[in-house]
Specification:
This protein is of the alpha/beta class and 249 residues long. It has one domain: Aldolase class I (TIM Barrel, Alpha-Beta Barrel), CATH 3.20.20.70. 41% of the residues lie in helices and 16% in strands. The chain contains eleven helices and eight strands. It binds phosphoenolpyruvate.
């Protein structure tokens, strides 16, 4: 079976009750490609609002989750709380959390394991900085980030993980990776999965691209063999998100 195209919208720390209701209404009433899985990730305060107003064919993701089940962890949200609220996915390892909040590979890995063990799907972000790209270590960086997770989740965990390759230099900068750059890294990630996990897992795992995707560049990117969808930041807050979701239609 082929890999189902997957488009996620990362709202980051943006939105209000009013604007999120508008975005959700627009998505719920637009014609979306039924062959594409759509997940939106509003700020945690608005997860339930989004879930309550969205049509059921669209899923909701948290932007982060903690690795402990409950207790004295001020400011954090647990996997079981997401489950309880019908939030079925979480982003993890976004570069803004890795850089600004100093999240390390091992912490991303333990949170990934906790989410998967609790029945939540993970959109696992990885990607290199501009400096790392210029040093020629992109594949090393990305596979190091993925290997930390591989050590904790094992072969079976990958079926509920979508890998988001997001070069840091392309996030929110308007500098999208070329189709060749994206395809090259996606192919390298798939090769790594094949060697480090298994060829079946490599064939089944969706690898999506994130970094300044918009309605103009999405169609060419979507044609690449190893690009199985997108993680969209800024443009997911705009009506053009619908065109991005329908990039394959
Ligand atoms: C992101 O934050 O995951 C992202 C890809 O942002 P943008 O589309 O705005 O570059």
């Amino acid at each position: 079976m082929g890999r189902k195209f997957f488009v996620g919208g990362n709202f980051k720390m943006n939105g209000t009750i009013k604007s999120i209701k508008e975005i959700v209404h627009n998505l719920s009433t637009s014609k979306l490609d039924p062959d594409t899985e759509v997940v939106i990730a509003p700020p945690s305060l608005y997860l339930l609002l989004a879930r309550g107003h969205l049509s059921p064919n669209i899923e909701v993701a948290a932007q982060n989750v903690f690795d402990k089940p409950h207790g004295a962890f001020t400011g954090e949200i647990s996997v079981s709380q997401l489950k309880d609220s019908n939030i079925t996915w979480t982003l993890l390892g976004h570069s803004e959390r890795r850089t600004i909040l100093r999240e390390q590979d091992d912490f991303v890995a333990t949170k990934t394991k906790a989410a998967l063990d609790g029945g939540i799907g993970v959109i696992l972000c990885c990607g290199e900085s501009l400096e790392e790209r210029e040093q020629g270590v992109t594949t090393d960086v990305v596979t190091r980030q993925l290997q930390a997770v591989n050590k904790t989740i094992g072969k079976d965990g990958w079926k509920n993980v979508v890998i988001a390759y997001e070069p840091i230099w392309a996030i929110g900068t308007g500098k999208v990776a070329t189709t060749e750059q994206a395809q090259e890294v996606h192919a390298a990630i798939r090769k790594w999965i094949s060697e480090a996990v298994s060829s079946e897992v490599a064939e089944q795992t969706r690898i999506i691209y994130g970094g300044s995707v918009n309605e103009k560049n999405c169609r060419e990117l979507a044609k690449q063999t190893d690009v199985d969808g997108f993680l969209v930041g800024g443009a997911s807050l705009k009506p053009e998100f619908v065109q991005i979701i329908n990039a394959k239609a």
